[in-house]
Design brief:
The protein has 627 residues and is α/β, with parallel strands linked by helices. Strand 16, helix 9 and strand 17 form a beta-alpha-beta unit. The longest helix has 20 residues. The protein is globular and about 70 Å long. The structure holds adenosine-5'-monophosphate-propyl ester. Adenosine-5'-monophosphate-propyl ester binds next to helix 9, strand 24 and strand 25.
Length: 627
């Protein structure tokens, strides 16, 4: 298959595309005008038809689509016909508010069935959804709403997390006060608590539908290249970028890779533990499993609430066959011990997946032994928000490709990946370099919303003609790929992506801060931990109270994932003569390491300068710690 996909990619992807329902077949499989790839041009289809309508025409209408588990123990089970009914009801609610094809709709919701249902309802009428992770702050919500120009945001009165209620509606209210494009807020009832209300702007979802009526909204037959969604992710600048995904290419790609990698079937019970607010949730909770007619598990709350075995309990309760999660979660469970999963019957599991960050061999082995009980292969899937779906991943069952713990193994069919040096020259086995993709693939992003120049610069300028992933990788003698973390200033905190530039621009707006540099240090559980080096404005004194204020400021500006693990107050920032911050020096101090090989200093400092800065800073940081 791989050879066929490389020799004749268009024929290969056309065969895959025929597995979906098209209202009109494409004229051309690929229109490649670098750096833009447009797939299945001339074709027309609808994403909600792929995920729902196709199934209700078969026996699948009465099978489970969604098993929902609320954190507080509530449950709901939706069949495909219920999902079909709700998608139509919600689509009609959107139409009542004047939403039509091409409009942007923001979603800021807890993990409840209404979230995927609304995504599908948007897709049904050709509206473009932008889901905002419900852990983000009002400021982050506002930035995203403004960037897309969304007129409508959908939220809930609240959501449960570790027994507490997250006041989502209040956060949206705060955001709305500085979002001029926003006209309406739809509120879904989840907790029933009292919430502030703005008559004329706020609408309860229930008031837009008559419970006794049947609704049918004709699916909008959109062009294959019509945007399905915009999802914001961090890059190397202070502002997150809106990744735009299309309809036809994205759906075809995900439909195929979930079959190859997860062997997903209509009878599968598939549980991806990510939040729908990240790309993993978009592809692995909504579009891919539903396009296969599988049943998904959707869990609202925290993994360790009310006890450490909540997840293992859910697997036993619903008979989950495929579990897809992150190395951070595995490491967290590993720390609590195998006695927690041991209490449960996990025999329904057939396959395990990992995503979001490199999985260390110890965590892999623990996952394999204690969750898969040495029966289930682990698929370590490498991909990104930009790639839409899996790129490098094992395809279990192919005997010629045994798994290697810690390696994502090989590129999937259609994916032409390579590891190159700074000049773009392919590296021999055993050498670390930059991971690039040399051919377009159907899940490739369409653009960065409203910023084609940034699209060109971020992905296509570094290695002209190839897509730059921003990751380090290495191939071994057997051709296996080992992913070695980000090559740019992007951190992975518990698998979540956040840029140092974004954290710096949020910190600098704290009134006491004069200058800040953010670096990461390795964290045993979370992968990366956030370390801040801060110089203060004249008259400001370092103190624990100020550390708390800066932390709170970051939580308010970005969200709780931006909480720093360590803040160092320094008198001066170590800089080169040309004024560049010596990040390697900061990183070494933050991780308690030595400076290492100074001959290839990335930040252009002379060896002597760097050494001096390192020693000075080490002293200050030790003083900081003692204080
Ligand atoms: O560094 C890689 C890491 O996550 C980055 C993409 O992050 P995001 O767009 O948030 O998407 C995460 C979920 C797809 C990549 O550039 N990454 C993702 N999967 C893996 C990984 N690193 C190593 N191994 C993986 N399996």
């Amino acid at each position: 298959m791989y050879r066929h996909s490389m020799d004749n990619p268009e024929e290969f992807w056309a065969e895959e595309a025929r597995k979906l329902h098209w209202d009109k077949t494409w004229d051309k499989v690929l229109d490649w005008q670098p750096p833009y790839a447009r797939w299945f041009t001339g074709g027309r289809l609808n994403a909600s038809v792929q995920c729902v309508d196709r199934h209700v025409k078969t026996w699948r209408k009465s099978k489970v689509a969604i098993y929902w588990e609320g954190e507080n123990g509530e449950t709901r089970v939706l069949s495909y016909s219920t999902l079909y009914r709700d998608v139509n009801r919600f689509a009609s609610a959107l139409q009542k508010l004047g939403i039509k094809k091409g409009d942007k709709v923001a979603l800021y919701m807890p993990m409840i069935p209404e979230l995927p249902t609304f995504m599908l309802a948007c897709a049904r009428i050709g509206a473009i959804h932008t889901v905002i992770f419900s852990g983000f702050s009002a400021q982050a919500v506002c930035d995203r709403v403004q960037d897309t120009g969304a007129r409508l945001i959908i939220t809930a009165d609240g959501g449960y997390r570790r027994g507490k209620i997250i006041p989502l509606k209040e956060i949206v209210d705060q955001a709305a006060s500085s979002c001029p494009t926003l006209e309406k807020i739809i509120v879904v009832k989840r907790t029933g608590q009292k919430i502030p209300w703005n008559e004329g702007r706020d609408v309860w979802l229930s008031s837009l539908m008559d419970d006794n009526a049947e609704y049918y909204v004709k699916p909008e037959s959109v062009e294959s290249t019509h945007p399905l969604y915009i999802l914001y992710t961090s890059g190397t600048t202070g502002k997150p970028k809106g990744i735009v995904h299309g309809t036809g290419g994205y759906l075809v790609f995900n439909h195929s890779v979930y079959q190859w990698v997860f062997d997903i079937k209509e009878e599968s019970v598939f549980w991806c533990t990510a939040d729908v607010g990240w790309v993993t949730g978009h592809s692995a909770i909504v579009y891919a499993p539903l396009s296969h007619g599988a049943a998904i598990v959707l869990y609202e709350g925290a993994p360790d609430y009310p006890a450490i075995d909540r997840w293992w309990d859910i697997i036993e309760k619903y008979g989950v066959n495929i579990l897809y999660t992150s190395p951070t979660a595995i490491r967290m469970f590993m720390r609590h011990g195998k006695e927690w999963p041991e209490k449960h019957d996990l025999s329904s599991l057939e396959l395990l997946g990992s995503v979001g960050e490199p999985i260390n061999p110890e965590a892999w082995q623990w996952y394999y032994r204690n969750i898969g009980r040495e029966r289930c292969p682990i698929v370590d899937t490498w991909w990104q928000t930009e790639t839409g779906g899996f790129m490098i991943s094992p395809t279990p069952g192919i005997e010629a490709m045994p798994l290697k713990p810690g390696s994502a193994t090989h590129p999937l069919p259609g994916i032409d990946a390579s590891v190159v040096d700074t000049d773009g020259k392919e590296l021999p086995p055993g050498q670390k370099g930059y991971l690039i993709i040399r051919k377009p693939w159907p899940g490739m992003l369409l653009d960065i919303y409203g910023n084609p120049q940034r699209y060109q610069e971020a992905f296509w300028s570094r290695f002209p003609g190839s897509f730059y992933t921003g990751d380090f990788a290495m191939r071994d003698e057997d051709g296996y790929f080992w992913l070695l973390g980000r090559a740019d200033e992007v951190l992975k905190i518990a698998g979540h992506r956040i840029g140092t530039a974004e954290l710096e621009s949020a910190t600098i707006s704290q009134p006491a801060v004069a200058e800040v540099a953010v670096v990461s240090r390795p964290d045993e559980i979370k992968g990366d931990a956030i370390v801040l080096f801060v110089t203060l404005k004249k008259g400001q004194q370092p103190s624990d109270a100020l550390k708390k204020e800066i932390t709170q400021h970051l939580r308010n500006t970005v969200g709780s994932i931006a909480s720093p693990d360590e803040i160092y107050f320094v008198e001066t920032m170590p800089k080169t003569r040309s004024g560049k911050i010596m990040r390697r020096v900061l990183k070494a101090v933050a991780s308690g390491q030595t400076l290492g090989d100074l001959t290839t200093l990335e930040d252009e400092a002379s060896v002597e300068e760097a050494k001096r800065a390192f020693e000075d800073l080490k002293k200050t940081s030790e003083k900081n710690k003692q204080a």
